[in-house]
Amino acid sequence: MNRDRVSALLRDFAGKRILVIGDLMLDEFLWGKVSRISPEAPVPVVEVVKEEWFPGGAANVARNLAEFSKNVRIMGVTGQCAHAEHLKRLLTSEGINVEAVQSHACYQTIVKTRIIARQQHVVRIDREKKLEVRPEHAAAALAQLEALLPEIDAIIVEDYGKGMLAQSFAAAICELANRAGRILAVDPNPHNPLAWRHVSVIKPNRVEAFASAGLPVTDPVDPPERDEALLKAGRVLSEKWQADNLLITLGEQGVLLFRHGAAPYHAPTRAQKVFDVSGAGDTVIALFTLALSAGATPPEAAEIANHASGVVVGKLGTATVTPEELLASFEG
């Protein structure tokens, strides 16, 4: 892709209206330094010098989208607590519409705390309880989705396996999106095996792809177009999910795109340096969906998503990519 084509698509991104549905989280980062070992146990003592909070999980997908469009909505559930209010404030501050977020006292807001010293990840602390979304709350979410369909161009479903998505809810999303002719992108979770049917794109990573296909994971082969085990997983999943596009993220190998009637398309990684891979998959699904909604071909969307993830892995923490950084990546 040349710079002019990318630039034209980026201009179109600004007007796209995207809804993100999925498991919402609050990411907390405690940055510090280590100068001694605790006298109480053989563990480092981290002196905290900075605290940061970011939207996590499906909320990080929305945050990636908000760099390119100010027409982003998010749907999910949280508890009724200070963490939930903090998460909604963070989202609102980035221009993300949170009117479809339900907060109920029967749920616990998921919080993931990462302690980092001298750019080294020391430990992660998870505060979560798997959701069991009540039928009345799922019904309310579907009613909201049906009402929003005339106002959106695409839906991204982000499944972190925390309980937001059950089979009946997933099937209803597919039916509503297909009936309305909307782009539907899914980031699946093999620990929550759902039957996704006739979606625009589904995006597992390599390990998730093998797990979802019921195949043993093998070592990567270069180039991926000659990785017979990976190609078999792609064929199995293409038949299983019947998606228009199957996009498998491959870490340091980039991404591999499967389409019916076409040879697999490989976009090699564009990362110049890798500091933190957390959230890179969120960036891929966000930018691939935006590109599709703006009229990009699937290979063009794969290239854009791949370049974007190459930028974010070069940053520490739950990061996003800006339009300027994305364009510069293509210039490089």
In short:
Helices cover 36% and strands 27% of the residues.
Number of helices: 10
Instruction: Tell me the strand percentage band.
Output: 25-35%
* CATH architecture type: 3-Layer(aba) Sandwich
How many strand units?
13
- Give the count of structural domains: 1
- Ranges where pLDDT stays below 50 over 5 or more residues in a row are none
How many strands, what sense, and barrel or not for the largest sheet? 9 strands, mixed
Helical content stands at 25-40%
What's the end-to-end separation, in Å?
12 Å
Average pLDDT for all residues = 93
Summarize the structure in words:
- The chain is an alpha/beta fold and 332 residues long.
- The chain has a single domain, classed as 3-Layer(aba) Sandwich (UDP-N-acetylmuramoyl-L-alanine:D-glutamate ligase), CATH 3.40.1190.20.
- It has helices spanning 3-13, 58-66, 82-93, 135-148, 167-180, 206-213, 228-241, 280-293, 298-312, 323-331, and strands at 18-22, 24-37, 44-57, 72-78, 97-103, 110-117, 120-127, 154-158, 183-187, 201-202, 245-249, 255-259, 262-267.
- The chain has a nine-stranded mixed sheet with strand order 5-4-1-8-9-10-11-12-13, sandwiched between helices.
- Helix 4 (135-148) runs parallel beside helix 5 (167-180) and helix 8 packs antiparallel against helix 9 (298-312).
- The chain is globular and about 65 Å long.
- The two termini are 12 Å apart.
- The mean pLDDT is 93.
List its salient traits:
332 residues; nine-stranded mixed sheet; UDP-N-acetylmuramoyl-L-alanine:D-glutamate ligase; 27% strand
What's the arrangement of secondary structure elements?
Elements: H1 3-13, E1 18-22, E2 24-37, E3 44-57, H2 58-66, E4 72-78, H3 82-93, E5 97-103, E6 110-117, E7 120-127, H4 135-148, E8 154-158, H5 167-180, E9 183-187, E10 201-202, H6 206-213, H7 228-241, E11 245-249, E12 255-259, E13 262-267, H8 280-293, H9 298-312, H10 323-331
Parallel strand pairs: 1-4, 1-8, 2-6, 4-5, 8-9, 9-10, 10-11
Antiparallel strand pairs: 2-3, 6-7, 11-12, 12-13
